[in-house]
Specification:
The protein is α/β, with parallel strands linked by helices. It is built from nine helices and nine strands. Strands 1, 2, 3, 4, 5, 6, 7, 8 and 9 form a nine-stranded mixed β-sheet that branches.
């Protein structure tokens, strides 16, 4: 079943680059505008590793969702800042393992929501796919809307995949994550990754993107990202570069560390 929460008629800006569309371009997708391609190419010139980060972030998401659905037995997913639908989305991975899985996507980009209406229909008869039009700076609203679909008395996997750099401050980042994690049941999981500031090229790329008029994205130190998991039980191998988190020896692609770190952790 596919449901829709809080969606209106959005205005899509094609004169200002948008991070979800640029990310889609870097991943080799087709859902972007010329302004996004221009910004994306400019980013590649500054940091050629950005396309590796984009592709490897999807590989990380696949491994994370497989772990949560298969090994941890999670049946509910709250994917905050989902971005544009591409190959192997959260609901497709989870429901292939457990057809009854319920997935709530959250985003406030108009193009993401437009595509969600058309593309997030590949769900099982037993499961549910829902999307919420909301800014993650309003976690209370996300919780209220998600409760229409998810049972917050049972474990929920809360996911922030490469989006927390848009938080206005580090304190705001912590507030967003902690507000949602405080609302979910014991046995729930937090899964997140984000770009880090140990790559000067990546930091410059993000600064240049802000200069285009796009929503600022702030890479943060590894220590700050790791601290988001304080009070939770980290799943092995702990906090690591996304290319090295449960990466099998036969996986195709980069396995060297890159400036993108994350983890999965269980709420006691």
């Amino acid at each position: 079943m596919v449901a829709e929460l809080g969606a209106g008629v959005p205005l899509i800006r094609t004169d200002i680059p948008q991070s979800a569309r640029i990310w889609n371009y870097w991943m080799g997708g087709k859902d972007y505008y010329e302004i996004d391609r221009i910004a994306g190419d400019a980013g590649i010139e500054v940091d050629p590793d950005i396309t590796t980060m984009a592709v490897q972030s999807r590989q990380f998401l696949i491994r994370v969702v497989c772990y949560l659905a298969q090994e941890a037995g999670v049946r509910q997913f709250l994917d905050v800042g989902t971005g544009l639908p591409t190959m192997q989305n959260t609901h497709e991975i989870a429901q292939a393992i457990t057809p009854e899985a319920r997935i709530v996507y959250v985003d406030n980009d108009p193009l993401v929501l437009t595509h969600a209406r058309a593309l997030l229909t590949s769900t099982t008869a037993e499961g549910v796919v829902t999307y919420i039009d909301a800014d993650y700076h309003d976690p209370e609203r996300i919780i209220a809307d998600a409760k229409h679909v998810l049972n917050f008395h049972e474990p929920v996997a809360v996911m922030f995949m490469g989006v927390l750099g848009h938080a206005k401050t580090y304190d705001e980042l912590l507030r967003i994550v902690h507000t949602i994690m405080d609302a979910v049941a014991s046995g729930s999981y937090l899964a997140l990754w984000d770009g880090t500031d140990d790559s000067r090229a990546y930091v410059t790329l993000c600064q240049n993107y802000t200069g285009t008029g796009g929503t600022p994205y702030v890479p943060r130190p590894q220590a700050q990202l790791k601290a988001v998991f304080d009070g939770l039980q980290l799943v092995e191998p702990g906090f690591a570069s996304i290319t090295q988190w449960r990466c099998g020896t036969t996986e195709v692609g980069e396995t060297r560390p890159i400036s993108a770190y994350g983890a999965v952790a269980r709420k006691p």
